[in-house]
Amino acid sequence: MTAPETSIKNRPQFINVRVLRQDEPGAKSYWELHKIKYEREMNVISVLQRIAAQATTVDGKKVTPVAWDCGCLEEVCGSCTMVINGRVRQSCSALVDRLLADNPDEIVLEPMTKFPVVRDLMVDRARLFRSLKRIQGWVPVDSYYNLGPGERIPREDQERNYPLSQCMSCGCCLDACPQYQKIELTQNEGESDEEFEQRQNAEFDEAFIGAAAISQAMLFNNHPTGKALAAERLEALSGPGGITTCGNAQNCVAVCPKEIPLTRSIARTGRATTLHAIKKWFER
Amino acid sequence: MAASNQPARVVVIGGGLAGLASTMKLAELGATVDLISLTPVKRSHSVCAQGGINSCNDQTRQLGDAEWNHLDDTVYGGDFLNHQPPVKEMAMWAPKVIELMDRLGVPFNRTEEGFIDRRRFGGTLFKRTAFAGATTGQQLLYALDEQVRRCESEGSVRKFEFWDFLGPIQDETGRCRGAVAQNLTTMEIRAFPADAVVVATGGCGLIYGRSTMSVFCTGSAASRCFQAGAKYGNAEFIQVHPTAIPGADKLRLMSESARGEGGRVWVPRKAHDPREPKQIPDSERYYFLEERYPEYGNLVPRDIATREIFDICVNEGLSVESDRMCVYLDLTHIPRHELDRKLGGILEIYEKFQGVDPRDEPMKIFPAVHYSMGGLWADYVKSADGGLEAGAPRNHMTNIEGLYAMGECDYHYHGANRLGANSLLSCIFTGLFTGSSIVNYAASQTSGADDVPESLLASAVQAQQERHDHLLHGNKDSDENPYLIHQELGDLMTRVATVVRKNDQLSEAMGKIDELHERAMRVNLADTGAWTNQNVVFAKALQDMFPVAKALLKGALQRDECRGAHFKPDFIKPPLTSEDPTERRRQAEAWCDAFQANNEKYLKSTIATWNAETNQPDLTYEDVDTSLIPPRPRLYGLVGAEAIEEVWNERAAATAADDDTNRYADSH
Ligand SMILES: Cc1cc2nc3c(=O)[nH]c(=O)nc-3n(C[C@H](O)[C@H](O)[C@H](O)COP(=O)(O)OP(=O)(O)OC[C@H]3O[C@@H](n4cnc5c(N)ncnc54)[C@H](O)[C@@H]3O)c2cc1C
Ligand code: SF4
Ligand code: SF4
Ligand code: FES
């Protein structure tokens, strides 16, 4: 690999950053152009930090700082997902020099497309976490007392599970999936927070669950204690919005920043749900 | 009320390892929990931990290890500033903690036979560290996150994610009756009444601007408790990691294995030499670790590497770059295939974030703030065997009744310096261990969450609303920008209070920080809106960094010694100089006398209380419980170590008999 630092020999003095902003849910979105001083070794996070500090557009208009989400800044927490130059990815690992090498004129930042915008680049990913409840994504241990070690686990199983266990719930795979449609509800007049959440969850639970949760189901079904709930998980994935909704477009695996073998999990789920259905039919 | 026939209602602030372990255990014990976090708990800073988690185990036991040795390594590594009973309890629980995490599904690396694999970490001779690939913290956090999600779907836990804890609610007796928090989306400020409140909000690295920590690690939550009257212990003890990758937004950890595998540290002899590193011939490179420490070379221990790199850049002005401090960590002399085999994973991190291949070009690195040993003071009850009394309500309670602190935001376990892979352990252990303490505390109260007076809740919300409104609209004529003040604060703290500390610099910084604090109180915000206003949330966190930063500076100024991570060159204990045996013996005696005298004075926790009138911390000193393992000097690399050790061992043997009689007599 050639280092991008040397590949853009003429470092620009300034960077143009075009941001798709939205003041609140349901509001109209609008573009805003910012110009910031180029520094070496910047990523999109530091670009947004500079924008927040100067809070002025390219034509000198005072604006509010752009809202966005971030946490670890080392691509392990899943917070900072957005669409950068047309591609969904983590912004902390989006290096400015690389982006400029592709498009020297500007960097374009947009919020994720499949989740409701909260403000600017912040989106509401509650549905993603809801899907982990839908597949009962946990090991159903008896208690949190010390009851001795867990079962021995062959190295191959660890090596199979570990990559799946790195899913950081960023949602890149969902944003890129043609079968995953945005769900955006608004709280009704007089509806309590709890009632609204319930209505929203009901809606989420009917819709396509997405690659990340499918892969998590396989993770837990491959754990000696986790598999106690295997049938329930397969049941959840057999229903509406389950595995059959997946059109196998494989966009998900192409964008996953953790390179999780999602299509393998999907294929395994497909086989397992079929077996599960046959088994159920015989048990009738 | 929280009488024993009713489930305890607990508010847990923070969902890192400590907060999640606490939540999970409390739910199991029948409590209902409101879990409040700045971020979805799955995204907490604990995900960043790479290395592993320690416990004595079946393999190490057969080589002579025991929980007692883990305790010993921890307090020796902490330069004896750790209260020993909590450390002992933690070491005893460590094997159990790992077994539980194993049952919860953490994909620990396995041996061929399917046992949990272990590696060796700094500060011990034993292979105690269990690990899950290079993402141990992430894997541990996920296992707890999953269990808490399970509790949530069973109804015992409610999560409030994207909420900022603003402060404890205290009644007229000072007892904590709940918490006030703000919804980061709607900006609603709300009171959460509770029988008890747990603060598990992690470290405070952002006081230094950039560190190896996540953006959530502002220390604001601990500071809000501190300002409400909670004591803060050992603020001056901040661990610095020698090799981090300086980024514009964050300083990312570069594993020490890069030096272990043959990495060479150097700078151009000519300051800010503009040539590409490969163009600089060997004779014009300064391999300063190799020159200054011919014996150890690049493998000098962490703290020495840190100090030397700092010295080269700050005092010698030999930083590779003129506008930023860094030195080269060079691996380019090692064949590519060898690097890929041994260091593949970590070199990819560098490549990913720097966009430069460290196999072709030397890495640029600099030390970075990494961990806060200090934090909220927390009590404990010592048991007859020198550990902690299980279920005692005071375990991990701050001096504010009903307010508990645990995880990186408390001041326990790590003393003056943290051992690698001990923090994940302390977080999970504390969360699990204190469950019964908190439930027992709630049960012993005659009033609880349900009968907190409405007026108390309302006035607590009101006070926070006023602060919020004032920030939005109170400083119309000021041009102070919170982001720029944060940069200044970070620069100042990094300059005077990281690796090398000098009293003149510290005193000067204390004046500067007063001025910055005042300016921070007058910030004028670019965003005065009432929807997802990150500007105002940051401004609050920034203002609340100052009390902790002030406690840190003052603690450092008043501590005229070197202990653990706190290094003052003006107070180094000198090596022995004489070759003559009698004179050398005399010098060793004198050295030990001086060491003892120094311990009399400084082997004490620094305890800060916030004085709202002066806007300054007041400091007092607390004795450290060293009843299990008597303090001994750390002599690594010191000339004359053998002679000193001999004298010391003789003295220790003489006092051991006395110690035995009153070892377990006093309770904390
Ligand atoms: C790069 C790196 C590597 C490390 N590697 C290791 C290792 O290998 N082994 C080891 O033992 N230790 C390691 N550590 C240290 C260890 O990761 C941390 O000490 C530990 O994870 C802290 O956990 P915690 O539960 O105390 O807090 P955190 O995980 O920091 O969680 C804090 C929680 O509090 C919440 N919070 C904070 N402020 C507020 C507020 N105002 N309102 C509401 N919520 C709030 C946050 O949202 C979060 O949920 C490492 C640290 C770093 C930086
Ligand atoms: S393979 Fe399935 S989940 Fe993945 S992008 Fe395609 S439709 Fe979506
Ligand atoms: S599977 Fe990959 S892309 Fe999808 S949420 Fe997990 S880490 Fe993100
Ligand atoms: S900030 Fe954590 S993934 Fe980017």
Structural features, described:
The complex is a heterodimer of chains A (284) and B (668). With 284 residues, chain A is an alpha+beta fold. Chain A has two domains: 3-119, Beta-grasp domain (Ubiquitin-like (UB roll)); 125-282, Alpha-helical ferredoxin (Fumarate Reductase Iron-sulfur Protein, Chain B, domain 2, Orthogonal Bundle). In chain A, 37% of the residues lie in helices and 12% in strands. Chain A is built from eleven helices and seven strands. Chain A is globular. The model of chain A is unreliable at 1-7 (pLDDT under 50). Chain B is α+β, with helices and mostly antiparallel strands. Chain B has four domains: 9-240 and 371-455, FAD/NAD(P)-binding domain, CATH 3.50.50; 242-367, Flavocytochrome C3, Chain A, domain 1 (Alpha-Beta Complex); 459-558, Fumarate reductase/succinate dehydrogenase flavoprotein-like, C-terminal domain (Methane Monooxygenase Hydroxylase, Chain G, domain 1); 584-655, no CATH class. Chain B contains 18 helices and 21 strands. In chain B, the strands form five sheets. Chain B has a six-stranded antiparallel sheet. A five-stranded parallel sheet of chain B has the order 6-2-1-10-19. In chain B, β20 (604-611) and β21 (616-623) form a beta hairpin. The longest helix of chain B has 25 residues, at 534-558. Chain B is globular, with a radius of gyration of 25 Å. The relative contact order of chain B is 0.15. Residues 663-668 of chain B have low confidence and may be disordered. Chains A and B meet through α2, α4 and α5 of A and α1, α4, α5 and α10 of B. The structure holds flavin-adenine dinucleotide, iron/sulfur cluster (SF4) (2 copies) and FE2/S2 (inorganic) cluster (FES). One iron/sulfur cluster binds at residues 167-173, 211-212, 215, 256, 258, 260, 262 of chain A.
